[in-house]
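re: ur question from earlier - yeah i can do the single chain one, its not a big deal. heres the input i used so u can compare w yours
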Amino acid sequence: MVKNVLIVDDEPDIRELLEITLSRMDLEPYAAANLNDAKNILSGQTIDLCLTDMKLPDGNGIEFVTHIQDTCPEIPVAVITAYGNMDTAIKALKAGAFDFVSKPIDLKALRKLVSGALKLSANETTNERSTDNSTSRLIGTSAEMQKLNKTISKLARSQAPVYIRGESGVGKELVAKEIHLQGPRHDQAFLPVNCGAIPTELMESEFFGHLKGSFTGATSDKQGLFEAAQGGTLFLDEVAELPLHMQVKLLRAIQERAIKPIGKQEEIKVDVRILSATHKDLTQEVEEGNFRQDLFYRINVIELPVPPLRDISEDIEILTQHILEKIKENYVLDNLTIENDALAKLSSYSFPGNIRELENILERAATLCDDNNICINDIQLPEENSTPAEENSLDNLTEQSSITLRKDQLEEYLEEKEKKAITAALEQTRWNKTAAAKLLGISFRQLRYRLKKLGLE
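and the output i got, formated as tokens:
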């Protein structure tokens, strides 16, 4: 079935160029020179995609974007902006536009945009994207999770940069991947990168690539992250960790949709959707001069907050069952159950480490429990793990090393003590694991799990 595309532009040459291009893509173009004519066509024809100029005789493109969002939100609409006018493009994206293309129109970029938008439109008409969130891979039935899933479905229909805000451990990467999977880029690469894990001196090469011989140690050509994510999504986790000099280069790449590998003379056009996240308060980082305001403005076109686990406590039970199923699969267990009082204990805890902390607590409980049944005593919460003597030990450690031990450092401290105890038992038994497990008062399976968990294998 032929797809219909509505073109709205008051310049006859632009309308003709677009009509010819779309016809060659086996699409049926409908052209309008103003908003009034466009609205009449929209009401009388089945339209699969709209392309609209920003400046029109009787209004502007953002008005038309808003009109489509109100009357037929299933139709993707892309705006045509003046060259370099990113502010206007961002306003259109905030209003609900699918994407934008700049004048003079790059026909190759236009064809990609049209193909992506029509793929999205096809998903809508065949009901591939469910309105009841049944296609979401995010677990939870609380009102907050239903709201998050609904917002993700809307954001998946756009190409606007999204800033995912949330505490450490809430699953920001999972949210980013869900946006990608529900959108028209789902069959292309989703490339997550932790900005804080890349050495400063290698950042430009990692992001944009380099040519052989462009600097000492460049023994071969290297493809950067932007090129590797071509056609897909690049997820910048912990984006606040980027140094200021790299923020400038990232800003240009986002604005120009082009990159220049180290050693290459000409720029390479890139078609990548940018999603970003950090556990830090980016607004505060901007105020303190650690993050560029113009870059914040570009990546934060739409902000998506992810709720902490304490705000969706009614989902703890369903999340627990989901995590236990994964543990069963990973450790090849026939059965793994949890008692109601253990669930109640979990539901009453505030989880400062969010879902990541819940996973750690359940993994430990699954290892300690008898007969693969987790009872209340198997659920070890951080505040229960330090006796008065241990608290004094922590205080001494704090005073001696001038380190302030926070709640999220307690787990690391306890693991270190556990490592020492297990190592001592293994040395005493000449590395006989069965004898060491007996000496420690745990099962061989529990010891094997601990060795793997603590990296002592």
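The chain is about 45% helix and 15% strand. not sure if urs matches, ping me
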